[in-house]
UniProtKB/TrEMBL annotation:
GTP binds at residues 16-21, 132-135. It is found in: Cell membrane. It catalyses: GTP + H2O = GDP + phosphate + H(+). SUPFAM superfamilies: EF-G C-terminal domain-like (SSF54980), P-loop containing nucleoside triphosphate hydrolases (SSF52540), Translation proteins (SSF50447). InterPro entries: EF-4 (IPR006297), EFG_III/V (IPR035647), EFG_V-like (IPR000640), G_TR_CS (IPR031157), LepA_C_sf (IPR038363), LepA_CTD (IPR013842), LepA_IV (IPR035654), P-loop_NTPase (IPR027417). Its EC number is 3.6.5.n1. This is Elongation factor 4. It is an enzyme of class 3 (hydrolase).
Length: 598
C-alpha cells in the first residue's frame, strides 16, 4: 500500500476523559461497523476492563476512510491509560506517527495528560489537541485550550471541539487525522524491520504479535528473527486487525500495522518492544532500545487452602500466556506456607491479577503487603536485590540500602495545595517544580520514594482534594535511605509475611500504630494473644488481644433468630479469609494493614 495513504495514530488522555468512547465513534464514522454492531466501548475487550471502565491491553483497529475521493487506511492504536502500563503506552506511541491528545472540556489538563504528552514528544509525534465532552453544561473549551497552551506549550488554536457522546465534531476530527497526522516514512524494499507493540494468546492460533512495520515487509512463510534473543520462527499467518474480525493477508507492508502468527505456545518470547527482522537478511539496527518490562512492586500470593498451591501455579501459568509482564517464583513463608512471590508493574496490575486469579480460577488468596525492590549493599562488597522484606540480611551485614524513587506529578486546584504539599512532605517527598497553570490550578513535581506511594498515596490525595487532584508517576533512580526491618510477632512468633521495611525514624510510630490496628483486626481467641512490633531483637510496641468465647451470638441476648443466623453466617464467611498463624487466626486485612500505618 502507498505510504501516502496510511495514517497511524494513537489516542492519549487522562483517565475518563473519553478515549474509549471516542475510539468507538471514530470506528463508526469510518463505517467499519454499523450502529447495531457498535457495542459500546468495543475496544475494551476484557471483562474486567468493561466492568471497571479501564483499558488494560492496547488494542488496534484498521479502518478505511474516503476523503476527497481518495481512499485512506487509518490505523487506530489504542493505548492503556493507567500509569502501571506506561511501558506499553510508550511502545504503542513508538508505533504511531501522531496522537490525538484528548482533554475533557470540563476538567482540563490533568497529571496523566502531561505524562502522556512527555512520552509522545519523546517519540516525535505530531499532537492533535482534541477537546472532548463539549456537550457538558460545565464545559469551558476556551479555558481548556489556554491550559493546553500554557502547560504543554503546543498551539491549541486549531484544537478540535468534539463530543464523543453526541457525535458532534467527529467527521471534522477524522478529516483532521488525514490532513494533519503525517504519513509514515519507511523504505518498502529495505530488510524487514518491525516492532512488537502488543502480544497476547489466542486459544486457536497460539501467541500473536501486534506489529508496526517500518521498513520492508513481513510475508507469509518468511523466516523471521526476534532481535532481542535471536530466536527464528516461520510466519504462519498474517492478519489486519479489524474491529469485528481479523482479515487475513499475505503480507504486511512498510508503514502498516498487523498481527503476526508464529505458532508459539505462549507469549513468553514475544516481548513488547522487541524488533522482528528477516532471519537471512537482517536489518542493521533494531527499532529503539528494547528493555523487558520491569516489575516495580512485589507481593506474596498464598492460597488460603494449602492444597491449592498447584492450582495457583497453573492459574499463574495461564495468566502469563497473555501477560508477559507478569513474573513469579515459588516462595515459602513460615506463616503462610507455600505460595508465590509475584512481580507487578504497579498497584493496579496487582489488583487486576489478584482479582482474575480469584474470579476466573476460583482461588481464595492471601496477598501480603506489596513491597518495592531494594538494592542492599553488603559489608562483604556484594549486592543483593531484596523483593521480600523478610529476606533483608541481618543489620550487621548491611553497609547501606538504596530504595527506588519516582518523579510524581500532581495537578490540583490551588485551595488544596497546602494539604497536598504536607502530604508529599510526610511521604518524604522533595519538591522539584511548582508551576501555576492559571490562577486556579497548580502543577507540582516531587521526587518521592516509591515505597511511599505504592499503597494508599492515591487514596489519600483523592480524599484531601475531594477528588480534584490528579496524579501520575514515573520511576527515576535509586537513592540511599536509612531503613530498617519492622517485624510483627503474634503470640511470640515473628510472622514473616508481615515484615516491612520502613525509615528508621518512623519505625517506632509505625510499630505502635501497626500493633494497635492488628489488635482491632485479630478476632478474640479462646486465649490471650500478645501482638508486638520489633526492630531486630528490640520490642518497640505491644498490645494484647483479650480472650473471649468463640460463639459470637453470645452477645445478642434476646431471641432474634434472624440476627443470630446472620451473625453465624458472617462468622462462617469470615473464616474463609482467615489464616491460622500458630494457634491464632489472622484475617486477610491484617496482611494489608502493615503499609497503611502513619
Ligand atoms: N457528556 C459526555 N460524556 C462523555 C463524552 N465522552 C465520554 N463520556 C463519558 O465519560 C466517561 C469516560 O469515558 P471513557 O471513554 O470510558 O474514558 P476513557 O478515557 O476511555 O477511560 P479509560 O479507558 O479508563 O482511560 C464515560 O462515562 C463516558 O460515557 C462526551 O463527549 N460527553
Amino acid at each position: 500500500m502507498d505510504l501516502k495513504h496510511i495514517r497511524n495514530f494513537s489516542i492519549i488522555a487522562h483517565i475518563d476523559h473519553g478515549k474509549s468512547t471516542l475510539a468507538d465513534r471514530i470506528i463508526q464514522e469510518c463505517g467499519s461497523v454499523t450502529e447495531r454492531e457498535l457495542k459500546s466501548q468495543m475496544m475494551d475487550t476484557m471483562d474486567i476492563e468493561q466492568e471497571r471502565g479501564i483499558t488494560i491491553k492496547a488494542q488496534s483497529v484498521r479502518l478505511d476512510y474516503v476523503k476527497d475521493g481518495e481512499h485512506y487506511v487509518l490505523n487506530l492504536i489504542d493505548t492503556p491509560g493507567h500509569v502501571d502500563f506506561s511501558y506499553e503506552v510508550s511502545k504503542s506511541l513508538a508505533s504511531s506517527d501522531g496522537a490525538l491528545l484528548i482533554v475533557d472540556a470540563a476538567q482540563g489538563v490533568e497529571a496523566q495528560t502531561i505524562a502522556n504528552v512527555y512520552l509522545a514528544l519523546d517519540n516525535n509525534l505530531e499532537l492533535l489537541p482534541v477537546i472532548n465532552k463539549i456537550d457538558l453544561p460545565a464545559a469551558e473549551p476556551e479555558r481548556v485550550a489556554e491550559e493546553i497552551e500554557s502547560s504543554i506549550g503546543i498551539d491549541a488554536t486549531d484544537a478540535l471541539m468534539v463530543s464523543a457522546k453526541t457525535g458532534v465534531g467527529i467527521r471534522e476530527l477524522v478529516d483532521a487525522i488525514v490532513d494533519r497526522i503525517p504519513a509514515p516514512v519507511g523504505d518498502p524494499v529495505a530488510p524487514t524491520k518491525a516492532i512488537i507493540y502488543d502480544s497476547w494468546f489466542d486459544p486457536y492460533l497460539g501467541a500473536l504479535a501486534l506489529v508496526r512495520v517500518f521498513d520492508g515487509s513481513i510475508r507469509k512463510k518468511q523466516i523471521v528473527k526476534l532481535m532481542s534473543n535471536n530466536e527464528q520462527h516461520e510466519v504462519l499467518d498474517l492478519m489486519y486487525p479489524h474491529p469485528l474480525k481479523k482479515m487475513k493477508t499475505d503480507s504486511i507492508g512498510s508503514g502498516e500495522i498487523g498481527i503476526v502468527v508464529l505458532g508459539l505456545k505462549d507469549v513468553g518470547t514475544l516481548n513488547v518492544g522487541d524488533t522482528i527482522t528477516d532471519a537471512k537478511n537482517p536489518t542493521a539496527e533494531p527499532v529503539g532500545d528494547y528493555e523487558p518490562a520491569k516489575p516495580f512492586v512485589f507481593a506474596g500470593l498464598y492460597p488460603i487452602d494449602t492444597d491449592k498451591f498447584e492450582d495457583l501455579r497453573d492459574a499463574l501459568d495461564k495468566l502469563r500466556l497473555n501477560d508477559s509482564s507478569l513474573s513469579y517464583e515459588p516462595e515459602t513463608s513460615i506463616a503462610l506456607g507455600f505460595g508465590f512471590r509475584v512481580g507487578f508493574l504497579g498497584m493496579l496490575h496487582m489488583e487486576v491479577v489478584k482479582e482474575r486469579l480469584e474470579r476466573e480460577f476460583d482461588l481464595d488468596l492471601i496477598a501480603t503487603a506489596p513491597s518495592v525492590v531494594y538494592d542492599v549493599y553488603l559489608t562483604d562488597g556484594s549486592t543483593q536485590e531484596v523483593h521480600n522484606p523478610s529476606e533483608l540480611p541481618p543489620v550487621n551485614h548491611i553497609e547501606r540500602i538504596e530504595e527506588p524513587y519516582v518523579k510524581a506529578t500532581v495537578i490540583t486546584p490551588t485551595e488544596y495545595l497546602g494539604n497536598i504539599m504536607n502530604l508529599l512532605v510526610a511521604k518524604r517527598g522533595l519538591q522539584e517544580k511548582m508551576d501555576y497553570l492559571n490562577e486556579e490550578r497548580v502543577l507540582l513535581e516531587y521526587s518521592v520514594p516509591m515505597n511511599e506511594i505504592v499503597v494508599d498515596f492515591y487514596d489519600k490525595l483523592k480524599s484531601i482534594s475531594k477528588g480534584y487532584a490528579s496524579f501520575d508517576y514515573e520511576p527515576t533512580d535509586f537513592r540511599e535511605g536509612d531503613l530498617v526491618k519492622l517485624d510483627v510477632r503474634v503470640a511470640g512468633d515473628v510472622v514473616d509475611a508481615l515484615s516491612v521495611i520502613v525509615p528508621r525514624e518512623q519505625a517506632e510510630q509505625r510499630g505502635r500504630a501497626l500493633v494497635k490496628s492488628m489488635k482491632e483486626l485479630i478476632p478474640r481467641q479462646l486465649f490471650e494473644v500478645a501482638v508486638q512490633a520489633s526492630v531486630g531483637n528490640k520490642v518497640i510496641a505491644r498490645e494484647t488481644v483479650k480472650s473471649m468465647g468463640k460463639n459470637v451470638t453470645a452477645k445478642c441476648y434476646g431471641g432474634d433468630i434472624t440476627r443470630k443466623r446472620k451473625l453465624l453466617e458472617k462468622q462462617k464467611a469470615g473464616k474463609k479469609r482467615m489464616k491460622a498463624i500458630g494457634k491464632v487466626q489472622l484475617p486477610q486485612e491484617a496482611f494489608m494493614s502493615v503499609l497503611k500505618m502513619d
